[in-house]
Amino acid sequence: MRSTSGRFEAVVNDSPHPSLRISVVIPACNEESSLPLVLSALPTTLLQEVIVVDNASTDRTAEVASKGGARVVRESRRGYGSACLAGIAELKPTDIVVFIDADFSDHPEELPQVIAPIVAGTHDFVVGSRMIGEAEPGALLPQARYGNRFATFLIGILWGHKYTDLGPFRAIRLESLREIAMQDTNFGWTVEMQIKAIEKRLRITEVPVRYRRRIGVSKITGTLSGTLRAGIKILYTIAKYYFSR
């Protein structure tokens, strides 16, 4: 099977599990510099499709995504969750959905190890953890590191499941993704998914992933206002789902 752009070829029959279809969703807002690196590093022979969601970019993000062979979906409503939801809505029939950021801080070539527990049939949802993997010096800013620790600590106390990270590099079975019915449109997306995965009794695991300094400035932890807004939304999301049980 070949994508309409011609570059991404889903040579699924060459993979160890030819019956599994794997799709990647990449939310992207003004990532024209880093996005080509992400697309070129993905193990394309394993993939059915790659969707880049252009989240109201004002640069050439959509253009470089198309040139890189991805299918471009446009979402004018700003927000990480909005972009992810738009990508999900446009998926072709698939089995596993992988989410990865467009800033090249993750290592896309590690996708096989992120999906491995799902491919093996032992798990439904996998979080790529930067905390148990190797992070390049300066890649995880102190506010991100401590924010992750606090949020995962709260989840452990309130839901009894130990996560180490709210990392963006993650994979989930499509059936499980539909079951958890994601709703958040911005900073609460990752924590919502992880809480709902517990509540729906999905088989959850983490795998170590490497992390490097992103290209450009983070829209969340790169500014004081972004850090505060993200932190407040994450805490609000945890409280929302805890008190609605």
Q: What would you say about this model in short?
A:
With 245 residues, the protein is an alpha/beta fold. Helix content is 36%, strand content 14%. The termini are far apart.
Q: How would you describe this protein?
A:
The chain is of the alpha/beta class. The protein has one domain (12-243): Spore Coat Polysaccharide Biosynthesis Protein SpsA, Chain A. It is 36% helix and 14% strand. It contains eight helices and seven strands. The protein has helices at 35-41, 61-67, 80-89, 111-119, 142-159, 174-180, 189-199, 224-243; strands at residues 22-28, 49-54, 71-74, 96-99, 125-129, 170-173, 204-208. The chain has a seven-stranded mixed β-sheet, sandwiched between helices. Strand 2, helix 2 (61-67) and strand 3 form a beta-alpha-beta unit. The longest helix is centred in the C-terminal third of the chain and has 20 residues, at 224-243. It is globular, with a radius of gyration of 17 Å. It starts with 21 loop residues before the first strand and ends with a helix.
